[in-house]
Structures are given as structure tokens and as C-alpha cells.
Specification:
The complex is a heterodimer.
Chain A: E1 4-15, E2 18-29, E3 33-37, H1 44-51, E4 59-64, E5 67-68, H2 73-77, E6 80-83, H3 95-105, H4 110-123, H5 139-150, E7 157-161, H6 169-184, E8 188-192, H7 196-202, E9 205-210, E10 213-218, H8 220-226, E11 231-236, H9 242-249, E12 258-260, E13 265-269, H10 274-286, E14 291-297, H11 301-309, H12 311-315, H13 317-323, H14 325-337
Parallel strand pairs in A: 3-8, 3-9, 6-7, 7-8
Antiparallel strand pairs in A: 1-2, 1-4, 4-5, 9-10, 11-13, 11-14, 12-13
Helix pairs in contact in A: 3-4, 11-14, 13-14
Chain B: H1 3-6, H2 18-39, H3 41-62, H4 73-90, H5 92-105, H6 108-114, H7 121-147, H8 156-183, H9 187-196, H10 198-203, H11 216-224, H12 226-238, H13 249-252, H14 254-280
Helix pairs in contact in B: 2-3, 2-7, 3-4, 3-7, 4-7, 4-8, 4-12, 5-7, 5-8, 5-9, 7-8, 8-9, 8-12, 8-14, 12-14
The chains are: A alpha/beta, B mainly alpha.
The complex binds adenosine-5'-triphosphate and magnesium ion.
Domain ABC transmembrane type-2 (chain B): 42-280
Main location (chain B): membrane
Transmembrane segments (chain B): 43-67, 79-101, 122-148, 160-182, 189-209, 254-274
């Protein structure tokens, strides 16, 4: 079993009336990636800022690479790399100068820093803009410059707060490859993201944060399993056929079907995969119900996210309940939590 | 594009403690600030315009009306320059306060704070860069003053000594600026907060008019003003007229009083600023 490279216990931080962190517990084993998910304002950035010594929590404790964040912040700073949610670059320095400065502040010699800066700029497709001041960079270019700054040295623990926000698909993919490479070589990473596909691909473990607390924790598969298995989704051509279709589907359902009249969609939880789908199609055909669309759906991380954070249900529970099984799960889960 | 080249980065080195590490980090930050000045030359140019304007206005507009005891109209010109030099170096306050306030509102400060560097070096680097800018301004100003007829008469070395006192005062004052910059919430507020109190400070002094013309209670304030000591010391070192002799102690020991004030201001305000920076960033 490997050591926890990042661990946090009961982190609390308030800003006036806002309880940004309300008892965050985390642990990230060495050499793994933790994806921190959560809606806007959940406390992801605040968590990252506490762990990277930028912010002191009101209470709680945290260690990074075994070093106490509150007691030895200087030591922690020499063990981490950070790219925050907002690019931390000097607008009036060129890309090259920005990275060189960071290198020199990492105690590199001027020559080493210069060479490393050049290497990183090439890698992040910024070589052409290396001599331009960062003020003239586009949003995605600044973002990449900031990521490059986080990679000037190779610290054992990295924190990336929404690293791919604002990146085009090609640059996003390239960054994913970098991250995978870093992790393959032993870096521990805490990553926040709004792209669940990104978490699915990169993170070994996922923690969902809401209202300053970790409300779920596990691998992507575990979380998906938690909110239920496969479902068959049918969209009928004529809404008058909805009751008939529900009737036809009910023998295959392992739970309550959900009906959305305005989209003419029926969703039923099933087991048995593609075979069930074929049976359902035959059954509907036999009853001469015309279908517009049909498919077998497995839950995505988006479903997990919406279900756990329950934000769909919060605004209007009644509507949400009829809308999707995920929302229903969320409601019951929320009730169970209370 | 292969990932191998990217990940060859070295592991980070331990923070270099002590004064040497702090100075090294400060120099990196100072270089950054000096580069910024070359990218935004307006800051330097406007910093020059005000004192040059003062030299010209005081020399040609008001000079004729102000008499220095025991001197002709040329005497006022000679008397005035030390005052303008000193006022110019104290205006470094505004540069430091605006610069630091701006840095604190920008994301870059997070980068600095997450790096294994000495915390105080962000402030030391700023004040060093401001010192370089001040030295440049004083140099240009000295040339302008020379053109309008100002001279130093006690030799080159003593004149250099006077400039050293001026820069020391300017450096001390930039730490006041640092504290102001850390205490206000916006760069705009920092600029006015940095400047506003300099006017009474520099005018209730011997900088522009002889103190003997002020009411008695104000005279005492003016003589003990840290600013007056530097002005008086510069006049002595430049061999410029000093106005009527006084029997006030700080004026009679102006060089040492000037050094003492500057060191005291530097010690107090650098301590307060670094403390403020640490708490603002925790
Ligand atoms: N410096 C601050 N002053 C006041 N409130 C703050 C401050 N920083 C964060 N907060 C509040 O703390 C809460 C958590 O913010 P945080 O930035 O951690 O959210 P987040 O999960 O990163 O959100 P996002 O997805 O939008 O980036 C929010 O309600 C925010 O308004
Ligand atoms: Mg955030």
C-alpha cells in the first residue's frame, strides 16, 4: 500500500457568512490522480488554495508529501507545482521571460532556466509567441503558459485547477497526454475539472464536492454503479402511444419507468444489455408502436454529477422527479442524507 | 512533440535560505519589475515630467519672488535644487505603492507565493527596481538642473555623497509605499494614498523656502522633518546656500540625522510591510 501524497482532514474555511469549506477530508495515494468535481462555488478552488499554502484554513489539518501544510509551508512549496484557476503570469513579460523567471525562482541558473523555458514553450505550441508579451496572448495561450510555468520543474505533487478550461480540443488532448506521462512517471496529481470526460479519462479516483464537503468518493465505475445500471430509452413517434409503450416495456423493467410526455420519452431501468434491447424492439414492433428512437444507456459521469449534487432537483423537485431516473435517485439520496 | 522531452524537468531544489537566497530571489523579482518599466515607459516618463516641471517653474516663475537670506536671485536657484531632488526621490513612494497594490490584485502573486522563494523578496525586488528608477530620474533631473544653471561647488565626491543620501532616503520611502500598497484595495487608491501626505511633508520643510519665514511652532516641525535633514545635508555637500544659519540640532548635524532617519524609516517600514505581506497572503 502506498502512502498518501496528499491528505486533508476536516478543512474548514469561511469567508464572512460563506462556509467555503465545511469539513473537507481527502487522501490521494502516491502516484495517483484524484479528480475533484463539484458545481460552481462548491469549494474546489478553496481546497486547492489551502493545500498549496495560499490560504490558511480556519481549522483542520493537511499534509502534502508527508509535510504539514500549516507548520512547514516553505517546505511544501518546494514539493508542489500549481496551475491555478486563473492564469498567474506577468502580462508585461514575454512568454519566454515568464518561464525563465519561474525557473530562476526555482534556483535554476539563468542558462538552465532559459533552456527549460524554450523547451516548454515548444511543447505547449507557444514557440511562435515566445517573444511576445503575455498581454497579447489569447485566453487559451495564457492558460498554456501558466500550465508550462507549473511544469518548469517536476515536483512530486501537482495541483491543476481546471487545467483545460478554455483550451481547444487539440491542446486539451495534448495536455492530457502530458498529464498521463507525468503520472506514469510517479507524479501525484489533484485535478479539478468541469469536464467529466476528463475526470473519467485521467482520474483514478473521483471526489465530488458540494457546499464545502466531499459528498461522494470512489472510482468512476463505482460512482456510476451507485446511481444505477442500464436503462432502455424509447422515444415514440406519437404521444398517444405512450401508455401502450409503457405497457409493452413493463415486463422488462426492473424499476419504475419514467415518462416525459413533452419529449415522448420513456426510460426504464433494465438488466441484460443488448439482448433486452432486441427483445424490447421486437415487442414494440409486434404491438405496432412506431418508434422514433431507441437506445441502451449506461450512466455517465454527468449523470453521477447531477444525481449527487442534486442541483436539478433543488430548483424544482417535482418536475425533476418525472424527468429522469437520475434525478429521482438524487432526491431519494438527498432525503436519505438528511 | 514527444512527451519525453517535457517531463525531463529536474526535481525542484530546496529553498535556499538565508540572506543570500533572499537577495537572489529579490534580484529575479527586481529584474521582472525593471523589464515591466521598459514595457510601460509611460510610468518612467511621467515620473520624470513632474520634477522637471518643478525645476523650470520654480526657477523661472517663482524664483524671482523668493529671496534666500544673504543671496541674490541666482542664490535661490542654487538653494532650490536640493529641495527638488529630495522631493523627487520621495515620490518613489507612489511608484512602490501603486506597483505593489497592482501586483496584489493580479494572479502573479499567487505564482510567487506557491514557489519555494523567500517571501520578502517580492517586496525587496519591488523596492530595488524603484530605486533604479529613482536613480535614473535623479540623473536626468541633475542634467536639467545643470542646464538651467545649478552647480555643485565642493567637488565630485561630496556631490556623489549627496546623491547617495538622496537615494537612501528614496529607498527608505519606497518601503512606506510598500506598506501603503499592501494596505489599500486598489492600485488607483494606492497612487493617491501614496502621494497625498507627501505634499505637507515636503512643503513643511526647508525644501522650497527658508524655514525662518515660517511661524515659530512650524519651524520646530520643519527642522525635525526627516526630509529637511536630507535637504540640508545635500546643500552642505553640494556647497549650495543653506539659508540663514540656525541653532537647531538636526540642521547642525544634517548628514548624520539624514542617514539616521532613513535607516530608521527603512527598518520600521520594511518590518511592517513584510509582516503585512505575510498575513495578507496566509
Ligand atoms: N476570497 C474570497 N472571499 C469571499 N468569498 C470567497 C473567496 N474565495 C472563495 N469564496 C467563496 O467560497 C465559495 C467556494 O469558492 P471556490 O472558488 O472554492 O469554488 P469552486 O468550487 O472553485 O467554484 P468554480 O467551479 O466556480 O471555480 C464560493 O461561495 C465563493 O464565493
Ligand atoms: Mg474554482
Amino acid at each position: 500500500m502506498s502512502e498518501a501524497a496528499i491528505s486533508a482532514e476536516g478543512l474548514v474555511r469561511t469567508f464572512g457568512d460563506v462556509r467555503a469549506l465545511d469539513g473537507v477530508d481527502l487522501d490521494v495515494p502516491e502516484g495517483t490522480v484524484l479528480g475533484l468535481l463539484g458545481p460552481n462555488g462548491a469549494g474546489k478552488t478553496t481546497t486547492v488554495r489551502v493545500l498549496t499554502t495560499l490560504l490558511r484554513p480556519d481549522s483542520g489539518r493537511a499534509t502534502v508529501a508527508g509535510v504539514d501544510v500549516l507548520k512547514h509551508p516553505d517546505k511544501v512549496r518546494s514539493l508542489i507545482g500549481l496551475s491555478g484557476q486563473y492564469a498567474a503570469v506577468d502580462e508585461y513579460l514575454t512568454g519566454q521571460e515568464n518561464l525563465q523567471m519561474v525557473g530562476e525562482l526555482y534556483q535554476m541558473s539563468a542558462r538552465e532556466a532559459k533552456a527549460r523555458a524554450k523547451e516548454l514553450l515548444e511543447w505547449f505550441n507557444l514557440a511562435d509567441a515566445a517573444g511576445r508579451i503575455a498581454k497579447t496572448y489569447s485566453g487559451g495561450m495564457r492558460r498554456r503558459l501558466d500550465l508550462a510555468a507549473a511544469l518548469v520543474v517536476r515536483p512530486p505533487v501537482m495541483f491543476l485547477d481546471e487545467p483545460t478550461t478554455g483550451l481547444d480540443p487539440r491542446n486539451r488532448m495534448a495536455l492530457w497526454e502530458v498529464i498521463e506521462q507525468l503520472v506514469a512517471e510517479g507524479t501525484t496529481l489533484l485535478l479539478t475539472t468541469q469536464y467529466l470526460e476528463e475526470a473519467d479519462r485521467l482520474a483514478h479516483d473521483i471526489a465530488v464536492v458540494d457546499h464545502g464537503r466531499v459528498i461522494a468518493r470512489g472510482t468512476a465505475d463505482q460512482l456510476k454503479a451507485q446511481i444505477g445500471g442500464e436503462r432502455v430509452e424509447v422515444v415514440v413517434t406519437d404521444s398517444a402511444a405512450l401508455p401502450l409503450a409503457v405497457d409493452a416495456l413493463s415486463p422488462y423493467a426492473i424499476g419504475e419507468p419514467t415518462v416525459e410526455p413533452h419529449t415522448r420519452r420513456i426510460t426504464v431501468p433494465v438488466t441484460g444489455g443488448a439482448r433486452v434491447l432486441a427483445d424490447v424492439i421486437r415487442e414494440l414492433d409486434a404491438r405496432e408502436i412506431l418508434i422514433h428512437d431507441i437506445g441502451l444507456r449506461r450512466p455517465t459521469l454527468d449523470d453521477v454529477f447531477l444525481s449527487l449534487t442534486g442541483h436539478v432537483t433543488e430548483s424544482d423537485e417535482a418536475v425533476a422527479e418525472t424527468e429522469s431516473p437520475e434525478a429521482e435517485t438524487a432526491t431519494s439520496r438527498k432525503k436519505a442524507r438528511v | 512533440m514527444t512527451a519525453t522531452t517535457l517531463t525531463t524537468g529536474a526535481a525542484p531544489r530546496q529553498i535556499r535560505g538565508g540572506v543570500v537566497g533572499m537577495l537572489r530571489d529579490s534580484w529575479v523579482v527586481a529584474k521582472r519589475n525593471l523589464r515591466r518599466m521598459t514595457r510601460i515607459p509611460e510610468i518612467v516618463v511621467f515620473g520624470l515630467m513632474q520634477p522637471v516641471m518643478f525645476v523650470l517653474l520654480f526657477t523661472y516663475v517663482m524664483g524671482g519672488a523668493i529671496a534666500v537670506p544673504g543671496g541674490d536671485s541666482n542664490a535661490y536657484k542654487q538653494y532650490l535644487m536640493a529641495g527638488i531632488f529630495a522631493q523627487t526621490v520621495t515620490f518613489a513612494v507612489a511608484g512602490a505603492s501603486a506597483g505593489i497594490a497592482e501586483d496584489m490584485t493580479k494572479g502573479l502573486v499567487d505564482r510567487f507565493r506557491s514557489l519555494p522563494m523567500a517571501r520578502s523578496s517580492v517586496l525587496v525586488g519591488r523596492t530595488i527596481a524603484d530605486l533604479v528608477q529613482t536613480a535614473f530620474t535623479v540623473l536626468v533631473l541633475a542634467i536639467v538642473a545643470f542646464i538651467v544653471g545649478w552647480r555643485f561647488n565642493n567637488g565630485f565626491l561630496k556631490a556623489l555623497g549627496a546623491f547617495a543620501l538622496l537615494l537612501l532616503l528614496g529607498y527608505a520611502f519606497s518601503w512606506i509605499g510598500a506598506l501603503i500598497g499592501l494596505s489599500v484595495r486598489s492600485p488607483e487608491a494606492a497612487t493617491s494614498a501614496g502621494l497625498i501626505w507627501l505634499f505637507p511633508l515636503t512643503f513643511v520643510s526647508n525644501a522650497f523656502v527658508p524655514v525662518s519665514s515660517m511661524p515659530g511652532w512650524l519651524q520646530a516641525v520643519a527642522y525635525w522633518n526627516p526630509f529637511s535633514a536630507t535637504v540640508q545635508a545635500c546643500r552642505e555637500l553640494f556647497g549650495n546656500p543653506t539659508g540663514a544659519p540656525t541653532n537647531s540640532w538636526p540642521m547642525e548635524h544634517a548628514v548624520w540625522v539624514s542617514i539616521g532617519w532613513s535607516l530608521l524609516i527603512m527598518a520600521v517600514f520594511s518590518y511592517l510591510s513584510v509582516r503585512k505581506y505575510r498575513s495578507a497572503t496566509a
